[in-house]
Amino acid sequence: MTNIIERIQETYAALNKDTVESDLLANLYADNVVFIDPLHRIETLPNLQVYFKNMYQNVSHINFNFTHTLGDDQSAFLAWDMTFVHPKLNGGNAIVVPGTSRVQFANGKITHHQDYFDSTAMLFGHIPLLKQIINLIKNRLN
Questions:
Q1: What number of H helices and E strands is found in the chain?
Q2: Which of 85, 80, 83 is nearest to 63 (CA)?
Q3: Would you say 81 and 98 are in contact if contact means Cβ atoms under 8 Å apart?
Q4: What does the alpha-carbon distance between residue 142 and residue 137 come to, in Å, rounded to a whole number?
Q5: Taking the CA atoms of the chain, what radius of gyration do you get in angstroms?
Q6: CB-based burial of residue 87 (10 Å sphere; 0-12 exposed, 13-18 middle, 19+ buried)?
Q7: Handedness of CA 39, 45, 46, 51 (dihedral sign)
Q8: What is the spatial distance between Cα 99 and Cα 91, in angstroms, rounded to a whole number?
Q9: Could you tell me which residues come within 8 angstroms of residue 99 by beta carbon, excluding any fewer than 6 positions away?
Q10: CA atoms of 83 and 63, how far apart (whole Å)
Q11: How far is the C-alpha of 80 from the C-alpha of 110, rounded, in Å?
């Protein structure tokens, strides 16, 4: 179990727009992987590789700082802070999004990966018009 958690951390530390097309993802994820986050559901390794390629090509920087891990022989939870820079969001300044991943694995590879994070904090809260609408809704709820 510790081995796969270490491999996850090492893989995400090595991933960038220059390495995303290497074998990093194929060495970590099973061919039939299911990857879910608040915005996407992706099935199969080839589709996951396309998703990561598109994501990494659109950001000028991305980094995951893993803050806590917990797991057993079949699954793990990883808490993290993702820092990324997208030229069209937040004036090109860094955005930090805390999140958690739940992964299940078999035969040394991840078969199911689900991310939990606030998509508003990641994306929608940094688009000017949407930010105004979100703030209006938050103010009305308070």
A1: 5, 6
A2: 83
A3: yes
A4: 9
A5: 16
A6: exposed
A7: positive
A8: 22
A9: 79, 80, 81, 82, 115, 116, 117, 118
A10: 5
A11: 18
pLDDT digits (tens, 9 = 90+) for 75-134: 999 999 999 998 877 788 888 999 999 999 999 999 999 999 987 766 655 566 666 776
Residue at token pair 């004036």: 91
Q: CA 9 to CA 92: how far, in whole Å?
A: 26
Whether this model's pTM surpasses 0.85: no
- Burial track 124-133 (b if 16+ CB lie within 10 A, e otherwise): bbbeeeeeee
Q: How far apart are CA 4 and CA 28, in angstroms?
A: 8
Cα–Cα distance for residue pair 67/96, rounded to 1 Å: 13
Pairing between β-strand 109-117 and β-strand 95-106 as defined by DSSP bridges: antiparallel
DSSP 67: E
Domains and CATH numbers, the chain: 2-141 (3.10.450.50)
Joined together, the tokens standing for residue 123 give: 């994306």
